[in-house]
Write a structure and sequence with these properties.
The complex is a heterodimer.
Chain A lengths: L2 H19 L2 E2 L3 E5 L3 E5 L3 E10 L8 E9 L8 H4 L4 E3 L7 E10 L4 E11 L5 E2 L1 E2 L3 E6 L9 H37 L2
Parallel strand pairs in A: 1-9, 3-11
Antiparallel strand pairs in A: 2-4, 4-7, 5-6, 5-8, 8-10, 8-11
Chain B lengths: L1 H16 L2 H21 L6 H30 L1 H6 L2 H5 L5 H31 L5 H29 L3 H16 L12 H9 L1 H13 L13 H21 L9
Helix pairs in contact in B: 1-6, 2-3, 2-6, 3-6, 3-7, 3-8, 3-10, 6-7, 6-11, 7-8, 7-10, 7-11, 10-11
Classes of the chains: A alpha+beta, B mainly alpha.
């Protein structure tokens, strides 16, 4: 065996072995969504429905679907936990050539352009590529929910009213006490 | 029960025209002002975090309002003993039960005032995120139950305390003990024992219910089981305070007759 043949054999062996080490995709499962754009306002809720289809000839079991939310631009911090309280779903077995539909309820907690997608993975932890659905582009219109300028009159006003009431009461009581004392003094022989 | 109304009127005059209640509500409003200012000027808050801040403000208002009620109730009998005014009260035609009932109702006026102050802050913080109404209704329901429970406990402690200092210290210790579960790590309260501890404690159960309504946007009936212990504790301790007070209100404190 010439060195050239040895080198060729090694390259071929590596090429065959590589897919085994590299992550493989989940067999014949697809994820689709009912819509790819959502436009709503800050604070509103919306629902994205996904259909997970098993195109294989055997039942697909042990799958988990996970919802992800991300900002499509820099400068906007997104905590997916705030958007949906139920982001991970453990799926019941999907029979061959059948599908299951999931509804994901989300609350728009940040204004801006965001992306939502759902990934399906095996529960046994195999190193495979997750099957993902198309990105849902979510545009959240901003609206004013907190008027920071208006807090100062309130934060100062209420304690001020109570402080004036306390001071006024104290003055009233002092005057009443004085009037009673002077009345008693006048009555003394 | 007409005499109870007379006692209530006299106690309210002592509390509010005497200036003590006004000073306490002034301090309460300062606390809420500081909290509301810090929250409102934080522009980094997202929509959900704004709901959480309304919840925080409401929970602080309920807890501190209940504290004011407890401390006022804890002073009602033992304080009068020390000031030497209980003897003249016992000599009036009012029965002991009526005296205790009047005092209990008067101490609840602190909660009424505290909640009236809270309305403005919760409305300001919650109107933009659409939860001001729900937050206020849940606050008045839970807060009133907790105020009745704590005022009754305060009266009970005050009946038996040998001095006013003992009564106030014990009441404060009792309230702090009730707050302990809120400081436990979330993992410690996730099991059945932790859940039971939170549910059986009227204070933690009530505050948990408020959180479910305000932060999670749950319906009124969805988590209503969390109101079980406040709903039991409030009337139970009120009846206990009236029954014990009606028999054991005396010039001297302590457990012995």
């Amino acid at each position: 065996m010439t060195p050239r043949t040895v080198a060729l054999s090694l390259v071929l062996a590596a090429a065959i072995a590589a897919p085994a080490a590299h992550a493989a995709a989940l067999p014949r499962t697809t994820v689709s969504v009912d819509r790819t754009t959502v436009a709503t306002k800050l604070g509103h809720t919306f629902v994205v429905r996904t259909t997970i289809a098993n195109h294989g000839t055997t039942t697909a079991s042990g799958l988990v679907a996970h919802l992800n939310v991300l900002s499509l631009g820099p400068g906007l911090y997104v905590d997916p936990e705030d958007w949906s309280t139920h982001r991970t779903r453990y799926l019941a077995p999907i029979p061959a050539r059948s599908s299951t539909t999931l509804s994901w309820k989300l609350t728009a907690v940040n204004a801006g352009d965001l992306g939502v997608y759902i990934a399906v993975l095996p529960r046994d932890g195999r190193a495979v590529d997750p099957t993902t659905g198309p990105l849902v582009h979510v545009s959240i219109a901003d609206r004013r929910t907190l008027d920071a300028g208006g807090i100062l009159p309130l934060a100062l006003g209420i304690p001020a009213v109570l402080a004036f009431a306390t001071a006024g009461l104290r003055i009233f009581r002092r005057r009443t006490t004085r009037a009673v004392s002077s009345g008693r003094a006048a009555l003394r022989p | 029960m007409r005499s109870a109304g007379v006692v209530l009127g006299q106690e309210l005059r002592d509390l509010w025209l005497g200036g003590r209640a006004l000073a306490l509500t002034f301090a309460f409003s300062l606390l809420l002002s500081l909290l509301a200012y810090l929250v409102a000027t934080n522009r980094a808050l997202n929509f959900l975090e704004q709901r959480e801040t309304v919840n925080l403000t409401l929970q602080v208002a309920v807890a501190v309002g209940a504290l004011l009620t407890l401390l006022t109730a804890a002073d009602m009998v033992s304080g009068e003993r020390e000031r030497g005014t209980l003897e003249s009260l016992l000599l009036t035609p009012a029965s002991r039960l009526e005296i205790v009932a009047g005092k209990l109702l008067a101490s609840l006026s602190l909660w009424v005032a505290a909640f009236a102050i809270t309305i403005a802050y919760v409305w300001f913080l919650g109107r933009g995120v659409g939860i001001a109404g729900d937050a206020l209704v849940s606050g008045i329901v839970v807060g009133t139950l907790l105020a009745i429970f704590l005022a009754s406990v305060g009266i009970l402690i005050s009946l038996f305390a040998t001095s006013n200092r003992v009564s106030l210290s014990l009441s404060l210790f009792f309230l702090l003990a009730l707050f302990v579960p809120t400081q436990l790590p979330s993992g410690a309260t996730s099991g059945w024992a932790g859940d039971f501890l939170l549910r059986v404690n009227p204070l933690t159960a009530g505050e948990h219910y408020i959180g479910r309504i305000v932060v999670d946007g749950r319906g009124w009936s969805e988590d209503v089981t969390w109101l079980t212990s406040p709903l039991i504790a409030a009337p139970l301790f009120a009846v206990l305070a009236l029954a014990v007070g009606g028999r054991r209100l005396s010039l001297r404190g302590g457990a012995s007759e």
